């Protein structure tokens, strides 16, 4: 089986694990949030890896960097949703802090990847 370039990225692997964590957290949100915060956080966390996958298929370094930047912004969007979940008492502060550490690891790697793409 062929392994695509995005699958080899550490940051994609982190985003994949992070997506699973967020889906598990979101499953505990109230039912009335199904079409609100639950849906939004699932979409944003899924977009992180999806942007990396889509960007890996682009030809130019500029295009690849654009999709890496989109992955970065959707990571920040996910952070905003996690903050909202904490503010609404859907998750504890300790759950929030754990996810925040994961977000910082992802954004650090995304920044480094984007920088390497721009310098090409």
Structure description:
- With 120 residues, this protein is mostly helical.
- It is built from four helices and no strands.
- The longest helix has 27 residues.
- The model has no long low-confidence stretch (mean pLDDT 97).
Write the layout of secondary structure elements.
Layout: H1 10-26, H2 37-56, H3 61-87, H4 93-118
Helix pairs in contact: 1-2, 1-4, 2-3, 3-4
Could you provide a short overview of the structure?
The chain is mainly α and 120 residues long. The chain is built from 4 helices and no strands. The radius of gyration is 15 Å and the shape is elongated.
Q: How would you spell out the order of helices and strands? A: HHHH
C-alpha Rg (nearest Å): 15 Å
Largest sheet: none
Give the total of beta strands: 0
Please estimate the helix content: over 70%
Q: What is the residue-mean pLDDT, rounded to a whole number?
A: 97
Structural class: mainly alpha
Low-confidence stretches at least 5 residues in length (pLDDT < 50)? none
Beta content comes to under 5%
Note the overall shape. Answer: elongated
Q: Termini, distance in Å?
A: 29 Å
Q: How many helical stretches?
A: 4
Question: Which properties best describe this structure?
Answer:
single chain; 120 residues; mainly alpha; 4 helices; 75% helix
């Amino acid at each position: 089986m062929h392994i695509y370039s995005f699958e080899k990225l550490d940051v994609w692997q982190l985003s994949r694990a992070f997506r699973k964590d967020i889906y598990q957290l979101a499953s505990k949100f109230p039912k009335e949030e199904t079409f609100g915060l639950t849906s939004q956080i699932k979409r944003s966390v899924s977009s992180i890896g999806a942007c990396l996958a889509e960007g890996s298929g682009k030809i130019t370094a500029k295009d690849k960097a654009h999709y890496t930047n989109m992955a970065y912004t959707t990571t920040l969007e996910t952070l905003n949703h996690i903050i909202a979940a904490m503010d609404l008492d859907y998750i504890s502060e300790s759950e929030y802090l754990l996810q925040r550490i994961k977000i910082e690891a992802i954004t650090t790697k995304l920044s480094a990847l984007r920088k390497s793409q721009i310098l090409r």
